[in-house]
Write a structure and sequence with these properties.
Shape: globular
Helix content: 25-40%
Distance between the termini: 62 Å
Low-confidence stretches: 1-5, 193-202, 238-242
Strand content: 5-15%
Largest sheet: 7 strands, mixed
Number of helices: 26
Structural class: alpha/beta
Mean pLDDT: 89
C-alpha cells in the first residue's frame, strides 16, 4: 500500500461520529477524498454525478456540526446525497449504488437511520422537516432538523406551503438553500432571478450576521425574544438596503449567501446558528459538478452521464448507429413536425426539457415551448389555460411526477373536456431510479376519470401515430403513456396516421388462449409467443392500444372465443388493464380464466429494466412459462 493510501482519511470514516474526531484543519482533505471517491465509483457504475459533487462540503459540514442521526437531515431529492451515503455507513457498499439488491440512489429510511425521509420527488423537504421539528418541540426533545433544498426544487409550490407554515408553530427548523442555478436543466422563472438579485445584499447579510453575534455575545439580544430579533434584522436591512427579503417576509431569518465550497466557514456558520430558536434559512452558493471540470462546464450533460473516463473526462457512449431511437426523441422530433403543420401547437414541461426532448421544439419554435419549473400541477393547469383559449398543448410530464398533478387533471382538464395531449414519459418500470420514479400507477389512477382517452403505444411508430391521433381528433383530453429507453425499430419516422380511438389490433391469430397487452411491454409477449409456438402452443395476441375507451368489440370476441386469457401491462395490476378486462367479462357474463401479469401490489426496488421485468414476471421467459402453465393446467 502506498504512503498516500495509508494517509487517506476517508478509510477511517465509517460513520459521522468518526468524522467528528477529525481536526477541523483536515476537513478540506476529507472533502477532496469524498469527491474523488464519488468520481471513482460513478465512472464505472453510473449515477447522478453533478449534484452530489456540488454538495460535498455542505455534507461534511452538516455531519461535523450536527449530531446525526439524532439530529435529522432531510434531503430534497437524493441526487445531492451521495456524499451523505458515503459518510453514513455505506462507503463500502457505495459501488453497489442503484444496482439490484444494492443501495438506493435516493435517501430511504428503510436503508439507513441516517436517511430521515424518502427523497425522490422535489420540493417536499421543508414540509417534512417542519413536521419533524414541530414534533420534536411537542415531545420536548432537544433535536435539530435541517432541510436541504436546491434552487430548482424551490420552484415547486409545496416548498412555499412549507415556508408559509414555518412560523405558525414553535420549531427550530434550519432550511439550507443550495443555490447552484440548476435543477437538471437551468432553473427558470421569477425565483431564479430573485436568487441572482439577492446576492447583491451580501455585504448587508455579512454585517447583520456579525452584528447579531456581537449583540448576543454582550447579551443585548436573547434567543427567548425571537420576534424582537427578527424585527431588528428586518429593520436593519430596510434601513441599509431599501430591500425586502422574501424569506424574512415569511418570518424566517435569512443568512447568506455564503460560499458553499468553503467547508471551514460552513462549519463556523452552522455552529453559530444551530441553536437559534425559530425557523431560519442559510443560503449557500455552490457549483454543480464541483471538482470535476467536465461536469462543471456542462452540468446538464453531467447530471447523470453514464460511464466515463475519470482521467480524460470523456463519456463512454455506446455506438448507437442503427440502434432504435429513444422514445423521448421520437416524441420530440414528432412534436416539431406537428408544430410545423399547425401554429396552435405548443409544448409544456415542468423542468424536464432535456429529459423529455422538448428541447427540439424549444430550438425550432422557442416562443411555443415552455419550461415552467418543478411545478407539475401548474404545468397541467397552465396547459388547460392555453387550451381554453384555442391553442393545442402537448404537456409532457414524467409518469411518476404526474401523480402530483392528479387534481389538476380532474378539475382543470377533464371536467372541462379540454382538447390537449398529456404525454406521460417514463411510463412503467424505469430501472435504476427505483420506487420513487417507477411510473406504474398512471393507468390505474387515470382510468376512473371521465372524459379522458388513455392510450399506450406498442412501438415508436404508434407513438407518432397516437400523437397525431390526439391532435387530429381533438375532442377530449388525450393521454399517451410510453416507456423510458429505446424503441423497437430503426425506421421510426413513418408517415403518421390516425389510430381509431377505442380500437385495438389483433397481432396474431391463435386458438389455445388469448393474450391482451397494452403498450410496449407487448413486445415481451411477442417474444414469449414465439417461444411457445415452437412447442405447438397457439396463442392469439391482441394489442389493446387504448385502455379507455375500451375496444368492446374486441373484448366480446375474446369473451366468446377463449376460455383462457392473459392480460399484460407495465403497470400495477390493481386497477389497470387486467382489472378492466375482468370487469368487462363479469359485466357481460363471460367466464374465462384470466391471469393478470404486471407489477404486483408492492413498491418495486431498483435494478436494470430486464432484472425488474423478471422480478415482476413480465419478461418473455416468465410470460412463456405462464402461457405453458395456463394451457396445460
Amino acid at each position: 500500500m502506498s504512503e498516500s493510501e495509508n494517509k487517506r482519511l476517508l478509510d477511517h470514516i465509517d460513520y459521522p461520529e468518526d468524522l467528528r474526531k477529525i481536526p477541523a484543519n483536515q476537513l478540506e482533505q476529507v472533502c477532496a477524498e469524498v469527491r474523488q471517491y464519488i468520481i471513482d465509483v460513478l465512472s464505472e457504475n453510473p449515477g447522478h454525478l453533478g449534484a452530489s459533487l456540488g454538495t460535498v462540503e455542505l455534507t461534511v459540514a452538516l455531519h461535523y456540526v450536527f449530531n446525526t442521526p439524532e439530529d435529522r437531515i432531510v434531503w430534497d431529492v437524493g441526487h445531492q446525497a451521495y456524499g451523505h451515503k458515503i459518510l453514513t455507513g455505506r462507503r463500502k457498499q457505495f459501488n453497489t449504488l442503484r444496482t439490484l439488491n444494492g443501495i438506493s440512489g435516493f435517501p430511504n429510511p428503510k436503508e439507513s437511520e441516517y436517511d430521515s425521509f424518502v427523497a425522490g420527488h422535489a420540493s417536499n423537504s421543508i414540509s417534512a422537516a417542519l413536521g419533524m421539528s414541530v414534533a420534536s418541540a411537542l415531545k420536548k426533545e432537544d433535536r435539530q432538523v435541517i432541510a436541504v433544498i436546491g434552487d430548482g426544487a424551490m420552484t415547486g409550490g409545496l416548498a412555499y406551503e412549507g415556508l408559509n407554515n414555518a412560523s405558525a408553530n414553535p420549531n427550530n427548523l434550519l432550511i439550507i438553500l443550495n443555490d447552484n442555478d440548476m435543477a437538471i436543466d437551468h432553473s427558470v422563472g421569477g425565483l431564479s432571478q430573485y436568487l441572482v438579485d439577492i446576492t447583491t445584499s451580501q455585504t448587508y447579510n455579512k454585517m447583520r450576521y456579525d452584528v447579531y453575534r456581537g449583540l448576543k455575545k454582550i447579551r443585548l439580544i436573547s434567543e427567548d425574544n425571537r420576534g424582537s430579533i427578527l424585527r431588528f434584522n428586518n429593520s436593519l436591512k430596510a434601513l441599509l438596503t431599501q430591500q425586502h427579503n422574501l424569506f424574512e417576509g415569511f418570518s424566517i431569518r435569512y443568512f447568506g449567501p455564503v460560499d458553499g465550497h468553503d467547508v471551514n466557514y460552513l462549519v463556523k456558520v452552522l455552529n453559530d446558528i444551530r441553536n437559534m430558536r425559530g425557523p431560519k434559512l442559510l443560503h449557500i452558493k455552490t457549483r454543480k459538478g464541483k471538482g470535476f471540470k467536465p461536469a462543471e462546464e456542462s452540468a446538464t450533460e453531467w447530471h447523470a452521464p453514464g460511464k466515463f473516463n475519470k482521467e480524460t473526462g470523456k463519456r463512454i457512449i455506446p455506438d448507437d448507429l442503427n440502434q432504435p431511437q429513444l422514445y423521448q426523441d421520437v416524441f420530440g422530433h414528432t412534436l416539431v413536425e406537428l408544430a410545423e403543420q399547425d401554429e396552435r401547437i405548443v409544448g409544456i414541461t415542468p423542468a424536464m426539457p432535456t429529459g423529455c426532448s422538448m428541447t427540439y421544439l424549444m430550438k425550432a419554435f422557442p416562443n411555443r415551448a415552455f419550461d415552467v419549473g418543478i411545478a407539475e400541477g401548474h404545468a397541467v393547469t397552465y396547459s388547460a389555460g392555453l387550451a381554453k383559449e384555442g391553442l393545442f398543448p402537448f404537456c409532457n410530464v414524467y409518469s411518476s411526477f404526474m401523480q402530483r398533478a392528479y387534481d389538476q387533471i380532474i378539475h382543470d382538464v377533464a371536467l372541462q373536456k379540454l382538447p390537449m395531449v398529456l404525454c406521460l414519459d417514463r411510463g412503467g418500470l424505469v430501472g435504476e431510479d427505483g420506487a420513487t420514479h417507477h411510473g406504474v400507477f398512471d393507468l390505474a389512477y387515470l382510468r376512473p376519470v371521465p372524459e379522458l382517452v388513455i392510450s399506450s403505444p406498442l412501438n415508436e411508430h404508434d407513438l407518432r401515430n397516437l400523437m397525431y391521433t390526439g391532435y387530429k381528433t381533438a375532442e377530449a383530453p388525450f393521454v399517451i403513456r410510453y416507456p423510458r429507453g429505446k424503441g423497437e425499430k430503426t425506421d421510426w419516422r413513418n408517415p403518421m396516421e390516425i389510430l381509431p380511438v377505442g380500437k385495438g389490433k389483433k397481432l396474431r391469430e391463435g386458438t389455445g388462449l388469448a393474450l391482451l397487452s397494452l403498450g410496449s411491454i407487448g413486445n415481451e409477449a411477442v417474444k414469449a409467443i414465439e417461444m411457445v409456438s415452437a412447442e405447438g402452443i397457439s396463442v392469439a395476441h391482441y394489442d389493446m392500444i387504448y385502455l379507455k375507451p375500451l375496444d368492446e368489440e374486441l373484448l366480446h370476441e375474446v369473451g366468446k372465443t377463449y376460455k383462457k386469457v392473459i392480460t399484460l401491462e407495465n403497470g400495477v395490476i390493481t386497477g389497470g388493464l387486467g382489472s378492466t378486462v375482468l370487469e368487462f367479462m363479469a359485466d357481460h357474463g363471460y367466464t374465462p380464466r384470466v391471469k393478470r401479469l404486471g407489477v404486483p401490489d408492492a413498491f418495486i426496488e431498483h435494478g436494470t429494466i430486464p432484472q425488474l421485468y423478471k422480478l415482476c414476471g413480465m419478461d418473455a421467459e416468465s410470460i412463456a412459462n405462464c402461457i405453458r402453465e395456463l394451457v396445460r393446467g
